């Protein structure tokens, strides 16, 4: 690790509630793993914490597996009694409970951990500390915030340490930094940007890579296409600004920023229901045109033409504008031209492809010119690795690093064959596939392959057969074409070389990829702050290790590998990719300044959470009832699948005890007779279309006397079944008409079912509290033991089951068994007490038996009133 990374770890570990913000690409994973390891090792030096439990939250599955892999490969982790374990969906309830009971370091999904904490399978008091990854992404009602609150409610001694590598994320919105610190219960703040002196000292040295910044001029046709696209964007924005329901202040330069769509959506969501079809279509067109801008610089000419024609097939609003016609003509002219009834190809390769191939060839020449050194070995005895605690120095870290470097030189001759290694960093999947095809097949074959796929697709709609004939010609030419792979073994200057070229993405895995591959050359296809910073850190680590080699006695003739890394940084002049890179630098700089000012001038202290008192009972009830209700905390049974939503957290914040149970009917059980099925808007539409909601409503009405269908929509997004635009024009969409019709039929078919429309989880929680007033607490065992198979089977006599459900002693658990035993309601009085006890249990059987055999008529026959004649069925 670099000195500034170790400094960040030490400062982080000094506080029990601290947020560390690093600049993007400065080695967040290394800082996180080292802090995790030291916190775990500290418990092993203390006999009282031999079973220390540490948890890492807010880490995606792929990144979690990568962290676990890096920890298992690190010699410093091998000395610990516990490895880094990823708690995923494949862990059963028993496996999770046993794992936490044994102790260790865990990367856990918060949605899985919340039910375990609520049910008591994992006790918050047994957790020694929680690390929060990507702290900027902890939302207000997220599962991670729920876990942190449950942890802090019962555990004041454990630590909470958060980390983030996106300073600009804390500048989005008012007081975003304070909100994140409040959600994570954090009091201290550390920031390590690229401009900090310790970071600059580590990254400014002689071992920095040799950067060849290649500024490419946009081809003439590409410049014209970019200008026409920007004109279309400007026209679309102008049309949107005419809508009276919107207040847009965007300019064309704003539309090319990476965060434009998020900012636009934030403005559009509250007013979306009032927008007419024309405005909604313009919004969709704007997003599609922005994708054209990105694809123009990243993809080849054939791929751009395919995307453009697919957009034109959807008949966008801008299709008949002069810019659109010129754009389509230029895009076709880059691929083919029709002359005298013949299709003449004009395959224009991507301007950056030649530079990639040039970098591969140059790397071969450079590697061949380097003197070959035998593998470097340590003269001394093998290094014994000790696991340092919190107060140890870094000498063992340095020796392990020396041991790892000297075991494997950068260029290892294998049977006399050199392996020049080149890493290409591409921004997204489509670019990586194109570069891979280029390296394996050559420029001509890669372009012809894409052209053939495009012509086959367009030939299906071609009337005169010209495109289809050209597709056949391309296919035949591809069969005869010899691939020109840049990865084949070749002889250069009398020596055999087998190049290795990998393609990677500028993400959190890039640093591990560099350390594993140890490339000679790196090609950055598009300017990226993450990629450039990661390369700086990688070279600084490499240079530090090579400096340590100077103190190690090597075998005679052994030579240390050169640390010089060649980096090709490709960028188009006067393009949106360069503008976006400059904007990312500016945004991070402004965010860092804001965080530094906050740290210097704001005194911040977060109080630990407290239990929310249950709501006051109604004053109209007697004192005994109020005292009894005050002693019992209101409880809600929540289905396990519902913890993907934010409502359980809100219920907890409102003072309700949340009990996670897998229940086959409904999502929330509020009392013995109230059950709620929650639907988001999208779920409602899909369930109505598939018929699933009908079955769910039938089950609700069958097992509960007060079933409720809750339709909940996002408070940040406006929603109406019929917009003001439609009302003004007396119109209604077909989909809306269909939705209203199905909802009406559902309510008519199930008169007991009640609908509730909720604008937010907070509103829903308040309604739940009102509905629970004066009600018995729900029975979680009864709700969970409803036979799921019987719940999905429709019953022909729903009225009979309604009567049966109301009889004393009849519960959802024994209702179906009793129905099978008796067959009809009339046969129930004929069953003996012993027969009833077989299916209901003795207490319930006694209640039902005494009810059906007790005399309910008054003793005085003269007060009976007139006799009611019996009616027989026709």
Automatic annotation (TrEMBL):
GO terms for molecular function: damaged DNA binding; single-stranded DNA binding; single-stranded DNA endodeoxyribonuclease activity. Belongs to the XPF family. This is ERCC4 domain-containing protein. CDD domains: XPF_nuclease_XPF_euk. InterPro entries: ERCC4_domain, Restrct_endonuc-II-like, RuvA_2-like, XPF_nuclease. GO terms for cellular component: nucleotide-excision repair factor 1 complex. GO terms for biological process: double-strand break repair via homologous recombination; nucleotide-excision repair involved in interstrand cross-link repair; resolution of meiotic recombination intermediates. The lineage of its organism: Eukaryota, Sar, Alveolata, Dinophyceae, Suessiales. Residues 635-715 form the ERCC4 domain. Pfam families: ERCC4. It is found in: Nucleus.
